[in-house]
Each structure stands twice: as C-alpha cells, then as structure tokens.
Write a structure and sequence with these properties.
Layout lengths: L1 H7 L6 H20 L1 H18 L1 H20 L18 H13 L2 H15 L10 H14 L2 H20 L12 H4 L6 H37 L5 H48 L3 H17 L1 H6 L9 H26 L6 H35 L1 H4 L6 H7 L2 H10 L4 H30 L12 H20 L3 H10 L1 H21 L5 E3 L5 E3 L7
Antiparallel strand pairs: 1-2
Length: about 525
C-alpha cells in the first residue's frame, strides 16, 4: 500500500503542457510509422537546408556559448552562489560529477568513442588523403573536439541560467520557459511559454530515440556474441522493454536512492573497463602516445576546426559531423540544463560551469582516447604486427562488411579475457542507457509539473509514465523501421531551440545585473558573503 501511495503522491502536472506534449509526440510518431520513407525524405530536405545554408549559425552559437562559459568561470559572477545563505549541496562532489557525466552521455559515448575514428579515417577532413597517417591523426583529434569543452559549454550556460531562477529567485517551476522570464516577462505564463516547453519536450523525445537507435543494436550484438544467440528484432525489442522497466524503477526510487546510486555504479564500472583496456589490452603505449598527439593536434588546430565550413572544397565534412554534433548538443542542452540545475543547489556558478565543461570534457576524452585508440591500435597491428604488436583485429573490415555495432563488440572481445570484459561492457552499456534515459524521464516529468519546489521531485507516476512513453515510442518506431524520421526531426528542432537558448542566456545576465546588490557569494573557504557586486574583486 505504501508503494501505491508513493506512486500516486507528488506535485500536480500542468495539463496545458503535459497533454499537448504527449498528443503531439504520439501523433508524429504514428505518422512516421505509417509514412516512414515520405516523412524522412521531407525531413532530410529540411535538415540539409539547415546544415548547408544555416550551418554558420550553429557554429557561431556554439562559440558564443563557449565564450559565455569562460566569462562565467573567470568573470565577476563566478562566485555567485546558486541558493540561499543556508543552502548546502545535496550530493557529494564525486556523486554530483558522476550524475552530470552519466546523465549527459549514456551509451552513445561507448558507441562513438570506439568507432567514430573510422568515419574520419575513411573520409578525412581538410583534404587529407584516405588511409594515410595524417588521416589517423585527424581521426583521433576530431572525436575529442566534438565531445570537448565547446560542446559541454552549451550545457553549462543553460544549467546556471535555470539554476539561478530555481535556487536563487526561488521560482517553484523547473521549466525552460521560466528561465526566459528575464526577457519575455509575464509572456512566459501564457501561450508563448507553453509553446516553448512543448517544443522542448518534443525535441528531447526525438533526441532520446537517437540514443536508443545507437545503443540497442550495440547491446544486442554484445549479448549475441556472449551467448551465441541470433541478432533479431525480437531480441532488440526485449532489450528496449527491459530498459524501459529499469528506467521506470529508477525514477520511482528518485534522485537519491535511484539515479545517484546507479550513476555511482556506472562510474565505477566504467573505470574498471577502461582501466583494464588501457593497462592490460596490449596497446598501452600506443594509446598514451596517440592521445597525446591528438590533444596536441586539436589544441593547435582548434580555431580552424571551430570555424571550418569548407565553403570552397564542399567536402560536406563539417556539415555531416561538426554541425550535426552541435545540433545534437543543442537538442539535449535544455534537458541537461534542467537536470543539472536541479542537483546543483548550494554550488557556485563557477563550480557548476567547471563541473560541466571540465569534468564532462575530461570524462569524454578518457572514453574516446582509450576506446578509440585501442580500436585503432588493433587495426594497425592487424596490418603491421612487427611495429604495432601481435594483438590485432581488422576493425575496419568488420565495420564495412558486418556492421558498425559488431565493430564495437569485436573490439572489446579482442582484448585479453575478452569474454569477461565484453560481459562487463554489456552491463556498462545497459546501465549507461538507463542512467541517461532516467534523467530524460525525470526532466520531462519536471517540465510538465505545475510547481516543483527545490526539495521536491516530480510525481513518481509522472516520471514512470514518461519512461513508458519513451519505451513505447522506441518499440513502435523500431518495429516499423521509422526511427530515422523522429531522430531527424529532433535535429531539425535544434535551430529554433537556439533562439530560445539565447533568450535564456540573456535573461540570466539580466537577472544578475538587476539583482547585483543582493547576490550571495562564496569564497574559497566555502563561506558565504553577501556583498554588493561592485566590491567583489
């Protein structure tokens, strides 16, 4: 009875946001199911226009977010406390960082971290020749760039903007529209605010299906490799069902007992898998050397990579990769901003920005450096064992002839104690997906809640309901081979979302300026001081 009561209890939902969000999402999902090819063709046309003709806007927006993040770290607002004088952080630093990182990456980092280098190697940037050592150098560097500080800065700026409204101004509404109040004023209480939240919900659901579309085949391939089972659609549906139920249980347990504990487990397991590959995989020296070279190349060419549109060469490399990635990060930025804001009470602006940019980038780089360069080491060893060692595998041949997900699985299985390591990798991939999607379900429930105080969580039935909706949509689209249209829709949604995020950032800085006489600051000794802005050095 206590479980049923807990399930039903909780803050009320805002029907004006909840019902339209669900109906619009279900309508478009069914439309894509019954017309996958036609809808995909139209959406691809829109997406091509946005990346080819408007790609420069994504680039400038991302750079503006990075510049804003640097300003918040080193500028006069860095020590502003996101909370009242008595507010303390709800989570330890380790758990807080782990919750940010695992929520923001999911199983996508395991997937792309292992095989993204192959795409760049076979179609290198800046006119490099395919199959050369220069192509391999770029292949390692570009993954670090796309998952580095520039990308994580988008999460950071949105996070502190929402956290300020929620923890400092004490607005009991955890929504993207509420963070726009500084510019839009009372308009956020009307149709404009509802439209912002509904649009955000739909774009986020499309982004979730992208992660599902990548993670499900990879996890299925891993299970098949371990058990000898045949890779079938039925097995994929079973995995999505188990994912959905696990997500539902985790959101039911809440932030402290569910998401925090699962995130901690995820971090420990990731350290174990990556540490074993680095130290015992047979390519330790190559991984360390290639990682060092990749960081050096990326640092040297960062400005060129950040601004490159290839308007003359027309290779489409920046459109297919960099601009696509920035659009993907934009779609997730509001959700991660809401989530990070919720768990960051009592921390300073600088701490939240660094927590996202520094630790997020570092964690992503560790994954890419170890998984990607280990995979690359196997490939080079298969071609030249005298130079690169005896433990080799033609990863590219598997990638091209068998499937991308199998290239990931065979890379892990090629390590010493490969079966045990692959089993750990499969568990890690499963938990990573659960933590990532649990965060999304929690965020969707928060956005569709009428009022949510800092010490409250969304109603469990609301979070559980969103978990079921995400799982049901993923299963339906997978059955009818209609995942691509919804994924593309979410990326298309990134362009108007950029305008909303600009309003969020402008509102934040306006709030800070207006409230300068009452801001609370933290010093290096973790003591709060309440002083006018003009006296802060």
């Amino acid at each position: 009875m206590n479980i049923i009561r807990k399930f039903k209890e909780g803050p009320k939902v805002d029907k004006a946001v909840y019902i339209p969000s669900v109906l619009i999402t279900l309508f478009l999902a069914f439309y894509f199911v019954f017309n996958p090819e036609g809808s995909l063709e139209k959406l691809n046309g829109v997406f091509s226009y946005m990346t080819n003709e408007l790609g420069w806007a994504y680039i400038w927006f991302t750079l503006a977010a990075f510049g804003s993040a640097l300003y918040l770290i080193f500028g006069k607002y860095g020590n502003v406390k996101l909370g009242s004088e008595t507010d303390k952080p709800d989570f330890s630093k380790f758990s807080w960082i782990g919750m940010i990182f695992t929520a923001s990456t999911g199983s996508s980092l395991l997937y792309w971290g292992t095989i993204e280098w192959i795409y760049y190697y076979q179609a290198p940037p800046f006119g490099s020749e395919v199959g050369t050592w220069q192509a391999l150098e770029w292949a390692s560097a570009y993954g670090l760039f796309h998952w580095g500080a520039t990308a994580w800065a988008m999460y950071a700026v949105v996070s502190v903007a929402i956290a300020y409204v929620y923890h400092v101004k004490k607005q009991p509404i955890l929504r993207l529209s509420e963070a726009c109040r500084g510019v839009l004023g009372d308009k956020v209480d009307g149709p404009i605010g509802k439209m912002i939240d509904i649009f955000f919900v739909f774009g986020l659901i499309g982004g979730v299906t992208t992660s599902m579309g990548l993670g499900t085949p990879m996890l299925t391939a891993g299970i098949c490799k371990l058990t000898g089972m045949e890779h079938t659609q039925t097995l994929e549906l079973i995995i999505i069902t188990l994912w959905t139920l696990s997500i539902g249980v985790t959101v039911f347990l809440g932030l402290e007992k569910g998401i925090k504990r699962l995130s901690d487990l995820n971090v420990y397991l990731a350290f174990g898998v990556l540490g074993f590959l680095l130290l015992a995989g047979g390519h330790t020296v190559f991984i360390l050397n290639q990682t060092t070279s990749a960081i050096g190349l990326m640092s040297q060419e960062l400005i060129r990579m950040s601004f490159w549109t290839d308007a003359v060469g027309q290779s489409m490399h920046p459109q297919w990769w960099t601009i696509f990635y920035w659009a993907w990060w934009v779609v997730y930025a509001p959700a991660m901003g809401l989530y990070i804001a919720k768990i960051s009470k009592g921390r300073s602006v600088k701490e939240v920005v660094l927590g996202s940019v520094l630790w997020g980038s570092l964690g992503s780089w560790i994954f890419f450096s170890i998984l990607g360069n280990y995979s690359m080491g196997l490939q080079l060893a298969s071609q030249n064992p005298e130079t690169y060692g005896a433990r080799g595998l033609d990863v590219i041949a598997i990638f091209n002839n068998v499937g991308v997900e199998w290239a990931v699985v065979e890379t892990i299985a090629a390590a010493p104690l490969g079966t045990i390591l692959l089993a750990a990798f499969v568990i890690l991939a499963f938990i990573s997906m659960v933590t990532g999607q649990t965060t999304i379900a929690f965020t969707l429930a928060a956005v569709t809640t009428k009022e949510l105080k800092a010490e409250e969580e969304p109603a469990r039935w609301n979070s559980f309901g969103w978990a079921l909706i995400l799982g049901t949509i993923s299963i339906s689209l997978l059955l009818f081979d209609a995942l691509k249209p919804l994924q593309t829709t979410s990326i298309v949604a990134a362009f108007p979302l950029m305008g909303v995020l600009i309003i969020v950032a402008a509102s934040f800085f306006k709030f800070m300026k207006d409230d300068k006489e009452s801001l609370i600051y933290t010093n290096t000794e973790e003591e709060e001081v309440k002083i006018p802005l003009k006296k802060v050095k």
